[in-house]
Amino acid sequence: MLLYICVVLVVIGANTAQDLGAICHSNTMQHTEDEVITKIVQAMNTDFDSVITRKEVLIFFAELMGIQLGSLIDIVANLSNEQLLMAAAGLSIEKESFAQAWHARFHDNLDFVYATFDRFDVNKDGLMNALEIEAIVNKALIHGDQNHDGKLETNELVSYLETIQALPRPWKLILTRITF
Fold first, then answer.
1. Strand partners for 94
2. Torsion-angle region of 167 (φ positive above 0: left; ψ -120 to 50: alpha; else: beta)
3. Which residues contact 45 (CB under 8 A, 6 or more apart)?
4. CA distance 124 to 145
5. For 122-153, b where at least 16 C-beta lie within 10 A, e where not — what string?
6. What is the pLDDT of residue 15?
7. Of 14, 18, 90, 128, which sits with the fewest C-beta atoms within 10 Å of its C-beta?
8. Is the pLDDT of residue 19 over 90?
9. What is the DSSP string of the chain?
10. 41-69 tens-digit pLDDT
11. Distance CA 69, CA 59 (A)
12. In this structure, how many other beta carbons lie within 10 angstroms of the beta carbon of residue 1?
């Protein structure tokens, strides 16, 4: 019933098919947005220290892009953030490949993944690159670092990403008024 209402409200109220705010999150494994966000952050935290670094975020996206770093991970671990960003600056993934890789790993519906991609494709060139990923990290540090220690702890990144996904959506505002 809830999914049906979301679909109807999207059809009625969506400005564009790729507007994240107008697309209901759905997942073929029936995972909620919060569950998917938690899985993403856990996948990023490769050293299990409860702190998400720029390197971990870039490594996560490199793997999502299909770039197998293998033994290069040790080299990447020794680079400064600036060196890492310069080395990764030319790496990018196009929208369709990103959506397919994301769907295969996290099982979100493709329309939702496309809209998420569009939200973070800052220059709207249809590619996600290291500079745009760095912008995500910078925004997360600015708005998500709750204890202001200059680090993103896993719980802070989860909260920040949940906040992004919780931005007002026409269907969400209406659904909060519906009782079942």
1. 127
2. beta
3. 51, 52, 56, 154
4. 27
5. eeeeebbbbebbbebbeebbeebbeeeeeebb
6. 36
7. 90
8. no
9. -HHHHHHHHHHHH-SSTT-GGGS---BTT---HHHHHHHHHHHH-TT-SSEE-HHHHHHHHHHHTT---TTHHHHHHTS-HHHHHHHHTT-EEEHHHHHHHHHHHH-B-HHHHHHHHHHH-TT-SSEEEHHHHHHHHHHHHHHH-TT-SS-EEHHHHHHHHHHHHTS--HHHHHHTT---
10. 998 898 899 999 888 888 888 887 777 66
11. 8
12. 7
Question: How is residue 159 written in tokens?
Answer: 């909260």
Q: What is the pLDDT of residues 108-167, one digit of tens each?
A: 889 888 988 998 888 899 998 878 888 888 888 999 999 999 999 999 998 888 887 665
Residue 113 to residue 100: CA distance in whole angstroms: 9
Quote the percentage of the chain above a pLDDT of 90. Answer: 20
